[in-house]
Amino acid sequence: MTKPKLRKETILLNMGPQHPSTHGVIDFFLEVDGEEVVGAEVKMGYLHRAVERLAEFRTYPQIFPLVDRLDYLSAHHSEFAYALAVEKLLQVDVPERADHIRVILVELKRIASHLLFYGAFAMDAGSVTPFLYAWREREKVMDLLEDVCGIRLHPNYFRFGGVREDLPPGFLEQTINFVDKLPFFLDEYEAMLGENEIFQVRTIGIGKVSPKRAINLGLTGPYLRGTGLKWDLRRDEPYSVYPKFDFEIPTGKQGDCFDSYKVRIEEMRQSGRIIKQAIEKIPDGPIRTSLPKKVIKPPKGEAYARVESPRGELGVYVVSDGSARPYRLKVRAPSFTNVQAFPELAKNHLIADAVMIIGALDPVIGEVDR
Amino acid sequence: MLDWIALKFLAGVGILVFLLLNLLVVTYLEMKIAADFQVRLGPMRVGWHGTLQPLADFLKLFLKEDVVPGKADRILFWLAPLIFFLPAFLLFLVVPLSENLVPQDLDIGLFYIFALATVMPVGIIVAGWSSNSKYSLIGGLRGAAQQISYEVPMLLSILGVVMLSGSLSLVDIVKAQDGLLLGFLPSWFVFLQPFGFLLYLIAVLAETNRVPFDIPEAESELVAGYFTEYSGIKFGIFFLAEYTMTFFLSLFGALVFLGGWQGPFLPPIVWLLIKTYVLIYFVIWVRWSLPRIRIDQILALGWKILLPAAFINIFLTAIFMEIG
Amino acid sequence: MQKELMEAIASRFNEADFNPTGSLSHPVLTVKKEHLLEVAKELKTNNKFSFDHLSFVTVVDHLDRFELIYVLNSYKHHHSLFLKTNLPRENPEAPSVVHLWETADFHEREVYDLYGVKFAGHPGLKRILLAADFPGHPFRKDHPLVNDEAYLLKEGYPKEKSD
What is the pLDDT of residues B134-181, one digit of tens each? Predict the structure, then answer.
């Protein structure tokens, strides 16, 4: 009697669009053989709001709130990129005080975003407590930002030629206070998660990628730096007042989830350094260049500006036809491209690892779908 | 004859009441201790400082709509929670709360306990299969694999205690912990079998599907594993069964390793409960501190590390018994 | 570095339209669609250029043509370039560069989804942000808006099927 052939089937598993993993409405469609992922597909678009098309019907200042809502976890960076792009078109300079304020806010938001990454990554690994500890620090950052911008999440604070308002009194002292205490908290968080053997076993060696492959896939940001490539737009294509500050670019070794985590923790420390230097060197002066006309009509042309957001290279490309509304606004969102690497990174890993890889890529669905 | 039946029936009801009261306390402690670790307050409104919260939660579960997935196997879907819960409840038959307070002290008490515990993975598989959902299936298989893998090390870690006490009956095991070691330490098996105790604790975490071994119900991956599709009373029964196992295994650990009801001044049952709750605190503490281990790592840990370690423990115990 | 790049490009590609101040931030190289693939390959593999990072692919809808834009960067030489080509508005097609920069995969799908540009040689060109049966390509300037009467009238609603 011949043995019947064992019919093996792979299961198609939808991780999303609703999912307890906190990353938002995106569908990571997995083809699973038992526990092992043999194929994956990223299905996005559940949060598509056509921001780029909406921008064509709004005047230039009206687009700031739109751009805020793309990467809602680091809105200041999106505003920064957009402001830089249009300032290139308008050919205006930003007064130094405004530049310092911009850098301080942007680095504070970077710390907040990485803290959220830390908490969410810990939750993906199963440990709920670090999430609440990270939130404690994040609340302090949010309070600082609320003092300046008047709102916690979608600031609408940057303007062409500077920022909307000056800093409130006491803000600089409070920020220095926060930044001084930050390294101790980061040590605590490292001890809780990074030095935990279970966490290390869950993340070391997972989602490895070589620098060459990462570049080809378009990965940018901390994941790319985790592969060993020392590239940071703040250092390699400097904008604003970054050349004045002294900071390091942390890199990893293997390009796996653990390196991505370590790079982000280290970046938080470096952000603290930048903020401190920015506060020490901040000059007095105007916070906004007054533009010649009330209605902003950049001359015909196009400009592209990119900044280093917590997720990677965030770029804004503006095409102007001389009117008060942009002819085309294109946002190059880092998470859109980072998420593209997921099928390759998750191949031949288990489902549990796929979850960790998503966490390490740290996508924000607002900017994936725009 | 009739009064014998009535007596046994009352004993059963008594066990159930005792169990449910303790479960309320355990659930409340879980929420409050977690809140303490996470720098927050926990339930504060329902009852004084939230003490009635577990009652409110269970009441809510019982009042919820009972949703059964369309293509689920109805009979198995209904049976699975019972298969999971009944053994956990029946385990209390041989548990002595003090020297004379035991429903039925079986000579083969330990054997009975482990035999019943092996029925529970069947409930998990039935739940995962009958839900007709991919998440549940994967979760069910993972859960069953994990529970089966850790039963063997758990049993073996207790074998050292059996060798030292010479009996499978729980009352005898507790009695064998009378006396003093080295003049001042109570002669509890935790001091004579520290290795066994450690193995037992790890196995307890795995048997009750608690972090770091909670991959079968990993929230961030498979929503809720094998009981994803359950709601209402059936979910409540699964929930109850998990906490019952946590409570039972802590109670068992207190009896077998921590000297049971022995202790000065206070009544024996109070001592037993204190020791039980020390172990429960430890279990809750671990849950809120550690990340979760991956399923293949869990199974590797169980088979490749704990099992040989348990054998070595037995071997060493035998040598120790021969010498001293 | 920008100057070297411009000189190198000017010497290498002389039949293309090379515009050093076309954009206020990067030099622009406009090529004809037929030359696109070989120019892209040259830009990637030639050591003087080594554009290994494709930031994004997008289209600007000038009402008489589609302008397909590739934004290239080099990690090695720290320079950037806009590579542009013009496509007709009816049945716009372009060759896919996925075999050169794998990151073009999602970007080209997005351009197809929102503008309707078909990329030849793309492994799996289908909609990415919108639903699979969405009618039309909404980022085009002539796609009816919600307030348009044409949108509200049943007969005027674009009935073209898309995949």
Answer: 777 777 787 788 888 888 888 888 888 888 888 888 888 888 877 777
Q: What is the ipTM of this complex?
A: 0.86
E-assigned strand segments in chain B: 180-181, 185-186
What type of residue sits at position A101?
Answer: I
The encoded tokens of residue B170 equal 């729980």
Strand C80-87 and strand C28-31: the pairing is parallel
A111 near A282, Cβ under 8 Å? no
Q: Where are the domains of chain B?
A: 70-323
The closest alpha carbon to C25, from A289, A241, A239, belongs to A239
- C75 contacts on A by Cβ (under 8 Å): 215, 229, 231
- Tell me, what DSSP letter sits at residue A209? -
Surface-to-core class of residue B286, CB atoms within 10 Å of its CB (0-12 exposed, 13-18 middle, 19+ buried)? middle
Complete domains list, chain A, with CATH: 11-369 (1.10.645.10)
Instruction: For residue A4, say if its preceding peptide bond is cis, omega within 30 degrees of 0.
Output: no
Strand partners, A315: A306, A332
Nearest-angstrom CA–CA distance, C113 and C125: 9
Interacting residues of B165 by C-beta distance below 8 A, sequence separation 6+: B172, B173, B176, B177, B189
Chain C: closest CA distance from residue A339 (Å):
10
Q: How far is CA A160 from the centre of its chain?
A: 22
**Res C144 pLDDT > 70:** yes
Q: Which residues pair with C58 in a beta bridge?
A: C69
Is residue A342 within 8 A of residue A358, CB to CB? The reply is yes
Closest CB to A202: pick one of B222, B289, B291: B291
Tell how strand C65-73 and strand C53-62 pair up: antiparallel
> Which three-class secondary structure string do you get for chain C?
CHHHHHHHHHHHCCCCEEECCCCCCCCEEEECHHHHHHHHHHHHHCCCCCCCEEEEEEEEEECCEEEEEEEEECCCCCCEEEEEEEECCCCCEEECCCCCCCCHHHHHHHHHHHHCCEEECCCCCCCCCCCCCCCCCCCCCCCCCCCCHHHHCCCCCCCCCCC
Tokens representing residue A348 in the block: 């031949």
pTM recorded for the entire structure: 0.87
Q: Which one of C2, C56, C126 makes the best mutation probe of the A interface by having the most chain A beta carbons within 10 Å?
A: C56
Question: Which among C24, C78, C101 is the nearest to A88, CB-wise?
Answer: C24
pLDDT at site C15: 58
Question: Does residue C54 contact residue C75 with C-beta atoms inside 8 Å?
Answer: no
Min Cα distance C157 → chain A (Å) is 19
Name the residue ranges covered by the structural domains of chain C: 2-130
Structure tokens at A356: 């960790």
Is residue B212 reached through a cis peptide bond, with omega within 30 degrees of 0 on the bond before it?
yes
In chain B, the residue whose alpha carbon lies closest to the alpha carbon of A35 is B138
Matching CATH number, C2-130, of 3.40.50.1100, 3.30.460.80, 3.30.70.640, 3.40.309.10: 3.30.460.80
Touch A-C: 3+ C-beta pairs under 8 A: yes
